[in-house]
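Reply to dn_fold:

You asked what the input looked like. This is it:
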Amino acid sequence: MSDTASGLRFPLTKAALLALVQEALREDHAEDDVTTLATVLSSQRARARLVARDTGVIAGVPLALAAFRIADPSIEIRTDCEDGSAVQRGDTVLHIVGHARGILAAERTALNFMQRLSGVASLTHRYVELVKGTRAAILDTRKTTPGWRLLEKYAVRCGGGTNHRMDLASAVLIKDNHLAAVDGDVEAAVRRVREFATTKIPVQVECDTLDQLRAAIAAGADSVLLDNMSVEQMREAVAIAAGQVITEASGGVRLDTVRAIAESGVDRISVGALTHSAPALNLALDFE
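and this is what came back:
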């Protein structure tokens, strides 16, 4: 892993990054680009810019750089926008000078990585901006593209969001189906987790009702997930919790509802849409 200029920690090792990008280039048969091989001389050089076609936040630059450098090891790239940078329509992200064949071969792979991750970062940023001035942090979920979790959760951080648990082993979330297995006994579920875990691990309980919230607090949970509660119920839940547990709102969170949810006083708001429904940021590669 390495830090970007903006201080964000890129989640893949150099070896993992190269392996992922090489596989993406193989998937696209970048070395067998029939159109480019037929129309562009091997000696032809070109200048190009990777530009933003819309307003947003950039993520995925290291992946794009790797794609272009694999396709043309002699390529020269100037990075104008690091991951986490806000861009406006028309802003240049990368300046590229190299063999035209290499640039064209890597173009789609580079854009696919960056458009997807920048889309996640951009949507996250919109949510973060909407809750400014409240105590609420915007969190992601495990609703990620299989194989891309580290990258998508990194993109959430690029947009100013906070990561929820990374996987099933990193924290406990006792949900309704877990509670069903113990006949709804919150205290029993929390106790079993404490007995099972060999080390201290955060324990969160999903609460559909205020009675479940009270039971979770009494059982010693570290945090509670207020599932699909109304804003009025969330305000009451925050008053009941009174700082004894971390409160997290989940369900029904949209751009048009997140501000009211944040103003209920919850500590955190988890938004599955950050990773499962983020539209790609419109980026393009223009030859000069």
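The longest helix spans residues 100-130.
Hope that clears it up.
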